[in-house]
Fold this sequence. Notes:
- By secondary structure, the protein is an alpha+beta fold.
- Helices cover 24% and strands 28% of the residues.
- It has 3 domains: 104 residues, CATH 2.40.50.100; 96 residues, CATH 2.40.50.100; 216 residues, Chloramphenicol Acetyltransferase, CATH 3.30.559.
- The chain has 11 helices and 27 strands.
- The longest helix has 20 residues.
Amino acid sequence: xxxxxxxxxxxxxxxxxxxxxxxxxxxxxxxxxxxxxxxxxxxxxxxxxxxxxxxxxxxxxxxxxxxxxxxxxxxxxxxxxxxxxxxxxxxxxxxxxxxxxxxxxxxxxxxxxxxxxxxxxxxxxxxxxxxxxxxxxxxxxxxxxxxxxxxxxxxxxxxxxxxxxxxxxxxxxxxxxxxxxxxxxxxxxxxxxxxxxxxxxxxxxxxxxxxxxxxxxxxxxxxxxxxxxxxxxxxxxxxxxxxxxxxxxxxxxxxxxxxxxxxxxxxxxxxxxxxxxxxxxxxxxxxxxxxxxxxxxxxxxxxxxxxxxxxxxxxxxxxxxxxxxxxxxxxxxxxxxxxxxxxxxxxxxxxxxxxxxxxxxxxxxxxxxxxxxxxxxxxxxxxxxxxxxxxxxxxxxxxxxxxxxxxxxxxxxxxxxxxxxxxxxxxxxxxxxxxxxxxxxxxxxxxxxxxxxxxxxxxxxxxxxxxxxxxxxxxxxxxxxxxxxxxxxxxxxxxxxxxxxxxxxxxxxxxxxxxxxxxxxxxxxxx
Length: 527
């Protein structure tokens, strides 16, 4: 069932909020605890966290837009759920909230200042409603005591709501003249939490004469009759000062920042355990310095080294970029049983003066499979799909400046030994920068093997104008099931990247089935 998320009232003076940034978009999967958006109040920018799981179906307030408290921010529900009626209702509700905000503008002073004739400079701090279901809050712990000097941004107390325990930050500077709700006490929203003002100010009678502002009956009835089912949300604060340059940030709660400052701990050296790596109180308390005495000092100096791009690197970047963004890639992955291939290679290499690699066997198998599936041995042009009648396989070779692809001409007509000898010769020439342009032209299919580096599985970008490239992983010894029994076997994962313009999924799958037959039963390549 869809859940409606509304704009919460995050401070005692908040009448509206602005969506600074959405961190999710419509259609995204939302998990409980995910941050949905950053909301700017009249005091700070806060992270808005979801208590529900589902799909983000609707956004009611766009980035940069401002909406009154209790306006509909978003709707979360099941993927594909019909929320058209709900969206219509919530749109009307948002308009009513906006109209109500304008109509009640004259009452704003009365709501924000629950008492009149306060001594000069005195500020009442009331219990805020930190979620749309919060009716009362409990002071878990005061971090300041009466008589303490308060600076704007200082943490006054930890307040337990119906959803979470949150740090309560002061928006005023002065002296903490009075604590209205003691540690462990619970009080309704808008009760006096504390009084801040100039040191020595007479505040007698303020708490005794205080009356919390009451919402207008008309507004209350509208909320009851119009508001959809309220969502449960929890908030984690992040002040504007936490946002740093270059779109990066150090996320830390105000209390964590204060404790870190007191202990001379550099926040960049602390690992956060809160949501999205946010540094919280316990991270500072449990912090273990790298040395016996922890003093604040720069960790290092940010430096860069610019390495001029070689012509080879520029060409690689251009060609791969063109391939990735012009050819619609898709990928097919299979895991091959390599036990017979291992045995066959061992038997072949037992012959004097013959040494072949697994890569030689894979290249030969690809060439033979291409003969049976010519559509994979193709090229895309604007006017036609060009199917090559010859088979030239490119073998990717890593060199210092990047990647070269020397080509084995008429690979299907070569033996294992001929493939091995040619690959070795061309790879040596590639690493010594001796390859000629002719030796890198004309491929119809490519093989890229990172198995010798221990890579189990990967995908490659198609080497155009080819329509496909095979990525070959390492051979891995692991438990496998054979004939209903678990035994130790050897497997290898290969992934075929295909250009969907020329190769349909079924065609690519059929090619891999044939390739599997050849590699898992090497004797078939001699038939």
